[in-house]
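Tutorial handout. Part one gives the primary structure; part two gives the three-dimensional structure as tokens.
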Amino acid sequence: MPPNLITTDTPCPLWRRLLALVYDLLIVLAIVMVVGLLCQLATGGQLIRTGATAVVPVWYQALQGAVVAAYFIGSWRRGGQTLGMRPWRIRLTRGDGGTPTLQQVLIRVLVAAAPLVLLLLEPVIGLRATLWTWLLVWAGWFAVAAFDPRRRALHDIAAGTEIRLLG
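Part two.
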């Protein structure tokens, strides 16, 4: 491995993680759009029924979640980096600096995605309140990093992983 790709013991600052996440959200958006297009083609344009409210099949939501999770899990297992993490020169590692195990990345992606369950509140409390609730809870997931000595977010603590700077 070239010397400039060696992971340091320095924890990644929160601002850098969040900027990498913005990059990854653009990639996730592209993935979701491609899967949506393929599903629309496969169903003859009848995937989502509209009327008074839109009806999105549960299988489609599960497929989108699985594909997005596969992007993160595959990236973290293959080299500890998603495409969004590369320009910011950060890498996901185990606590000892090694490559995270499959179990660790599964835990990490499930805990990181847990606030998405709050979207089920939309029919009860409305879209605006649901999105604000989700945003506040998700921000809390990352706020933990401001107080953790290794700058780990809640999903890193649960999985036993860290985001570190590259040398």
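Part three, for discussion. Residues 107 and 159 are 5 Å apart (CA to CA). The longest strand covers residues 161-166.
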